[in-house]
Each structure stands twice: as structure tokens, then as C-alpha cells.
Design a protein that fits this description.
The complex is a heterodimer of chains A (about 220) and B (about 240). By secondary structure, chain A is mainly alpha-helical. Chain A has one domain. Chain A has nine helices and no strands. The radius of gyration of chain A is 18 Å and the shape is elongated. With about 240 residues, chain B is mainly α. In chain B, helix 3 runs antiparallel to helix 7 and helix 4 runs antiparallel to helix 5. The two termini of chain B are about 40 Å apart. The chains are: A mainly alpha (about 220), B mainly alpha (about 240). The interface between A and B is medium-sized, with 27 and 25 residues.
């Protein structure tokens, strides 16, 4: 499992792996927001938590179709399915690798982009906390979507159509926690709900993803 | 005699051929009578005026939109457990019907909301949940279309239906947490434990609900029959050796 994790992370970092693409996308979305809504500092500050959450979510989505498709094309996925390693474990590791290469950089970059959007000072800590708690759920749910669409040619658009509705609860609680934090309210409730969603999805979704992969590759 | 004998497509088709005419007539009768009764036989509401009458389309459509997904959930489970093809084809057949019901509920809701709330759309929990439900239907149908092998498609869409149901419920509560609403509570007495709509409006409403339910059944049976025959045609062609 460790070897698989290291392999996936290495592949993502090396040339053509697409590491950094998600980050660049996040940056560009954030930069485009003031162009579309206007440069008023107050307005930007009030929408910053939501915009940053949405940007992070879309950046996560962007790298999902590479998550399993590349392994499917070169046959690695078939080996994983037939290997003694439980497929659930392999899928979890792949999701973890996706989180380390996509989710974690987004979490680290979010405060910097928060400055661009005039996020209130009280909000930075809660934004990072909510993103750190929420992005693992995005990766795990995304892995399920990737597993569903793995055999389909040009499945990228379909993947977003399937995954985005599944992201709704995570987005609501995550953005709400960040928003309350930025306004100086108590963000404990949405943060706890978000943690619940993350732990539940991390615990349960790999089973669904593995089942779907077995069906798709039968 | 058990319900499982209808997992045999031949038996299913012969039964559905017998039942369908009855269902169509009953559904047509209920919907037509219910709507005419509702539109012309009831007084105007003293605050809402005649706009209240859109309830006879709105509530039954919303009811069936949710029940259609529920039915798909059950038939998907049956497919995953017992591998009856008729079951999963029924789920496939129900999806577009459910989606249309969702759209009807959303559109009539917007038309009703404009004079009543002064807005076509509000980010109210019920409205938002329905929009999300619509997205789930869209994804489900798109996944069916995208996969070529019918059995794989059936498997994957069934799992999507199960996972989607969990997330649909989650979204429902998340959305409720996120924003308080304008929409009134449910009008279905089983869910509220008591009557929230007065008798004058209630009886035609029940008539419409029954009518929509029957209409849904008839449509699903009809569409399932079509799907079964499509499968058969494909099988015959494959056997004949032609390029399918």
C-alpha cells in the first residue's frame, strides 16, 4: 500500500503528472472573481469564503479524471484488482494520494488567495480548518465518481455531472463554517457536521468505489 | 405464486399488457376529473385567489418525483441482490418520468411562487432539494446513456442510485441547515399526521395524487415493456450475426 502511495505521488509530481494544475486553476478562478463581480473590497470580503471553497472544489474536480483513467489505460488497474491487496484499500490509497497532491496544496494556498479576496482576518484560521477537514471528503467522493466513469471514453464531463451533486453537503457545511468564521460567529456546528461527513465518506465510500471498479472491469 | 415470477420478462409483459389499459383509463379518469374538479369545482382561496389551483399539478408532481426515485432505489437494490433484468429496466424506465415530474414541480412552483412570494425562485430548502434531486436524475440518466455494455450499465447505475439516495438525504438536511425557507410544510396527510388543507381543496387534490400515481405506474410499465423489447431486438440481431 505504501509503495502504491509513493508511486502515485511520484507520478503526480513528475512531468506530465498534472501536479500544480489544480493549484493554478484555483489561482485563476480566484483572480477571475473580482473581474466578474467588481473590485469593491466589502463585497469581495463577504463572498471570499464561498468563492474560495467553490474554487477549491472545482480544482479538486479537475484532476479527478486522471485519478483512475491513466491506470486503466496502461493496465495498472487490472493488476490492482487482481492483486492480493484488498481493492478497498487500494482505492483508499489512491484517494489519499489524490488528496496529498491536490487537496493539501489547495488548503495551503487558500490563505494566500484569501488575501487577494480581502478575507476578514478572523476567517483565515477557519477557512484553512474547514478546507483541511473537507477536502478529504472531496477526494474520496471524487474517487467514487472516477471509478464509475473509468471505462467511458470522454467521461470527463459525465464525471462532473455525477460528482458535483454529491459534493453539495460537503460544500454547504464547509463554506458555512468558513463564512461563520469570517464573520466572527461560532463555526463549531457546521465544522462538526463537516467532520462527520468527511469521516463517514472516508470510511464508507471506498467500499462503493471498489464495488463499482469490480463491476466495471469484470 | 410470488411476485418474483414476474421477473420473467414474458410473464411481466403479459401481465403488464393486461393491466395497462385499466391503468391508463383509471389514470386518465382520475387526472381529468381531479383537475376539472380542482380548477372549476373549488372556491378561490381568500388570500391566494385562484392561484391556489396550481396545487393540483404541483403537489402530485412533487409527490411522484420523490416516489419515482424511491421506486428506482428499490428496483436497483433488487437488481443488485437478485439480478432480475426486468427490475433494473424498470428503474431505467422510471428515471425520465421522475425527472419530468421534478421539472413539473419546479416549474409550477415557480409560477405559483411569483404572485405569492413575489419571486420565481428562492433558495429555500425544499426548492433547493428538488433542484438537487433533478441533478441526480440527470446524472443517473447520463450514466445509463454513456455505458455500452447493458449489464455493466445496470450495475453502475444501481450503485449510483444507492449512493445518490444517501447523498440526496444528506443534502436535504444540509440545505435545511443552510437556509430557512419560505415554503410551507407538506400537504400529504400521512407525513404530517393531520390534515393541513381544508376538505374542499383536499378531495380533488387526493384525486390528482392518485391519478398521477396511476399515470406514473402506467408510464413505467409501458416504458419497461419498450426496454425489454429493445433488449430482445438487440439479442436477436446479435444472434443473426449482423453488425448491431
Amino acid at each position: 500500500m505504501k509503495a502504491l502511495l509513493v508511486r502515485d505521488i511520484k507520478l503526480a509530481f513528475r512531468a506530465g503528472g498534472g501536479f500544480g494544475l489544480g493549484l493554478a486553476f484555483f489561482l485563476i478562478v480566484t483572480v477571475l472573481v473580482p473581474f466578474s463581480v467588481g473590485p469593491q473590497q466589502a463585497l469581495l470580503g463577504s463572498i471570499a469564503p464561498g468563492v474560495l471553497w467553490l474554487g477549491a472544489l472545482l480544482a479538486c474536480l479537475l484532476s479527478l479524471d486522471r485519478l483512475l483513467a491513466l491506470d486503466f489505460e496502461d493496465g495498472t488497474l487490472d493488476l490492482l484488482v487482481t492483486s492480493p491487496l484488498p481493492l478497498e484499500g487500494a482505492v483508499s490509497v489512491k484517494a489519499l494520494a489524490h488528496w496529498i497532491t491536490t487537496g493539501l496544496p489547495l488548503v495551503l494556498a487558500a490563505p494566500v488567495l484569501g488575501v487577494l479576496l480581502n478575507l476578514p482576518p478572523a476567517g483565515f484560521g477557519w477557512l484553512v480548518a474547514s478546507l483541511a477537514l473537507g477536502t478529504p471528503a472531496l477526494s474520496v467522493i471524487g474517487t467514487f465518481g472516477a471509478a464509475l466513469t473509468v471505462g467511458i471514453k470522454r467521461g470527463g464531463l459525465l464525471l462532473s455531472l455525477l460528482v458535483l451533486p454529491l459534493y453539495v453537503p460537503t460544500l454547504i457545511f464547509g463554506a458555512e463554517a468558513a463564512r461563520r468564521g469570517a464573520l466572527g460567529l461560532d463555526p463549531a456546528t457546521p465544522l462538526l457536521m463537516l467532520a462527520g461527513i468527511t469521516f463517514a465518506t472516508v470510511g464508507l465510500m471506498p467500499f462503493a468505489s471498489a464495488a463499482v471498479l469490480r463491476m466495471g472491469l469484470r | 405464486m410470488s411476485i418474483w415470477q414476474y421477473a420473467n420478462p414474458v410473464k411481466f409483459l403479459s401481465l403488464s399488457a393486461k393491466v395497462q389499459p385499466v391503468l391508463w383509463v383509471a389514470a386518465g379518469f382520475c387526472v381529468v376529473v381531479g383537475l376539472i374538479w380542482g380548477f372549476f369545482g373549488t372556491p378561490d382561496d381568500f388570500r391566494q385567489g385562484s392561484t391556489v389551483k396550481i396545487i393540483y399539478l404541483h403537489v402530485p408532481a412533487a409527490l411522484m418525483a420523490i416516489n419515482a426515485w424511491f421506486m428506482m432505489l428499490i428496483t436497483s437494490l433488487i437488481w443488485l441482490v437478485r439480478r432480475h433484468h426486468v427490475s433494473v429496466l424498470a428503474a431505467k424506465a422510471a428515471a425520465p418520468v421522475g425527472m419530468v415530474m421534478t421539472v413539473i414541480a419546479l416549474v409550477t412552483g415557480a409560477i405559483w411562487g411569483q404572485p405569492m412570494w413575489g419571486t420565481w425562485w428562492a433558495w429555500d430548502p425544499r426548492l433547493t432539494s428538488f433542484l438537487i434531486l433533478f441533478l441526480f436524475y440527470l446524472g443517473y440518466i447520463a450514466l445509463w446513456e454513456a455505458i455500452e455494455d447493458p449489464d455493466t450499465a445496470a450495475d453502475l447505475t444501481s450503485v449510483l442510485c444507492l449512493v445518490g439516495s444517501v447523498f440526496a438525504v444528506l443534502s436535504r438536511y444540509a440545505v435545511q441547515f443552510w437556509n430557512q425557507g419560505l415554503h410551507q410544510g407538506t400537504s400529504v396527510p400521512v407525513a404530517t399526521g393531520g390534515r393541513t388543507v381544508s376538505d374542499v381543496f383536499f378531495y380533488p387534490l387526493v384525486m390528482c395524487m392518485v391519478g398521477f400515481g396511476l399515470l406514473f405506474l402506467a408510464l413505467v410499465l409501458y416504458r419497461t415493456g419498450t426496454e425489454i423489447r429493445l433488449r430482445r431486438t438487440a439479442a436477436l440481431r446479435a444472434r443473426a450475426g449482423g453488425n448491431v
